[in-house]
Amino acid sequence: xxxxxxxxxxxxxxxxxxxxxxxxxxxxxxxxxxxxxxxxxxxxxxxxxxxxxxxxxxxxxxxxxxxxxxxxxxxxxxxxxxxxxxxxxxxxxxxxxxxxxxxxxxxxxxxxxxxxxxxxxxxxxxxxxxxxxxxxxxxxxxxxxxxxxxxxxxxxxxxxxxxxxxxxxxxxxxxxxxxxxxxxxxxxxxxxxxxxx
Amino acid sequence: xxxxxxxxxxxxxxxxxxxxxxxxxxxxxxxxxxxxxxxxxxxxxxxxxxxxxxxxxxxxxxxxxxxxxxxxxxxxxxxxxxxxxxxxxxxxxxxxxxxxxxxxxxxxxxxxxxxxxxxxxxxxxxxxxxxxxxxxxxxxxxxxxxxxxxxxxxxxxxxxxxxxxx
Lengths: 197, 166
Known about the structure:
Structural class of chain A: mainly alpha
CATH topology of the domain at 11-107 in chain A: Rna Polymerase Sigma Factor, Chain: A
Number of helices of chain A: 9
CATH class of the domain at 11-107 in chain A: Mainly Alpha
Oligomer: heterodimer
Order of helices and strands of chain B: HHHHH
Structural class of chain B: mainly alpha
Largest interface: A-B, 55 and 38 residues
Largest sheet of chain B: none
CATH architecture of the domain at 11-107 in chain A: Orthogonal Bundle
Number of strands of chain B: 0
Strand content of chain A: under 5%
């Protein structure tokens, strides 16, 4: 429960206490309301970011839905420990990426599942032109071909995070981040050239 | 590349955030629970059927069986605790990834170590029990286990290759 401000009349304090007691008895505390509001704020502003990160780590539609649910659960469960020492977006990146790299995949992906996922992926961009869909799909394939740590770093870089912030989220040195970004870009460029041939 | 990514991220249409159950467990929670269930099973089965085995096959087989099951139980408990120690909220991505991969490798190593021990114990049991019905039962079980075991072995090798690749 939040502390009641000191500079307040006794009558008002009593009323606030009574209101909180009633809310507590009703099983719904102010803290929960606040957490829910904060969570709704995060999902409203960062929802697409969470989805795009989870998409980069998914091979099937079921994995994508599972990952997204897990990320949201972890964000909800971790809200109580979020101290606003970093920006909310940085924290969301950390939790979502951690959810993705620690996800235990259930089974190998069949060719039919891979095709179904490609179709599902195109469906996510149904408002975009076909040429743009191809470009997004190529980008997704290139990012998905990277190892999980490199993929995480590239996703952060592509989202305009600074090197220091990436290093903090990843738990690596700034130099290691720079080296991995360069290596990942080279890998993606050579794979893109191979795909286009 | 950045502009393409930003365009892709803004164009994505995933619809409304789906309804979710806050009591739902994440994949890590489910994995930890699975290890804990297997640990409990190993302890319970080890104690109960171990005692029954004493009448059938003698004290040495009984004791060795109980030791194997208790060992496997403690191994699974250790895995369960290690998974629960992974904190996706506060740990860095590299740390979470390294912990996850270490646990996956250790799991595969444990399976690779335990399988020959268990198979060796079963062979010892087969030679000790002087009962044709029991022997035939073990043969049928072994054949069934072999068929299922080949499928599990293929999954194991696929997991192992994935872990090596990463």
